[in-house]
Amino acid sequence: MYLRHGTFSYLPELSDADIAAQVRYALLNNWPVSIEYTDDPHPRNTYWEMWGLPLFDLDEPDGVMAEINACRATFPRHYVRVTAYDASYTKQTTALSFLVQRPAEEPGFELVRSEGADRRQSYSVRSYATGRPQGHRYGG
Predict the structure, then answer these.
(1) CA nearest to 87, candidates 19, 30, 132
(2) What's the CA gap between 18 and 34, in Å, rounded?
(3) Could you give the CA distance from residue 129 to residue 109 in angstroms, rounded to a whole number?
(4) 36 near 46, Cβ under 8 Å?
């Protein structure tokens, strides 16, 4: 299964040059950039772990790329994404968000059906990866 997350999810994988170009675009718009990672990519899991603090006051994407590469090296079997925030609306608004790393193996999701009162059917989605303990969900 190929999980679709973020702005460029239906395009081919972004190269480091493509990622740097998008980061440069965010920085030119004065959008603070943050790097996040997770091993539970459920669509409703919007709050991923932050890699350090948001990167404010940068002019060039080199610092962001160094932090992305450090996060990739530390968590090689996790999803890593870059998120840029637009504060011009006077509240934290996501302006840009895209994946920069995904695990080699993505096990996918299971549709779970439950039967309630009066034989009503309800459905939920569960990631196959969450059957393993955190930190061991993808390979290894």
Answers:
(1) 30
(2) 17
(3) 8
(4) no
Which phi and psi (to 5°) does residue 42 adopt? -55, 140
The CA distance from 54 to 64, in Å, is 10
Higher pLDDT, 138 or 114: 114
Mean pLDDT of 95-121: 86
* Torsion (CA) 53, 35, 132, 126 in degrees, nearest 10: 110
Average pLDDT, the chain: 87
- pTM, full prediction: 0.79
The residues pairing with 34 across neighbouring beta strands, listed in sequence order, are: 83
Confidence of residue 84 (pLDDT cuts 50, 70, 90): very high
Residue length of the chain: 140
Cα(41)–Cα(109) distance, rounded to whole angstroms? Answer: 10
Look up residue 14 and give its two tokens: 């972004």
- Roughly how many angstroms between the first and final C-alpha of the chain, as a whole number? 19
**Spatial distance between the Cα atoms of 113 and 99, rounded to a whole number of angstroms:** 30
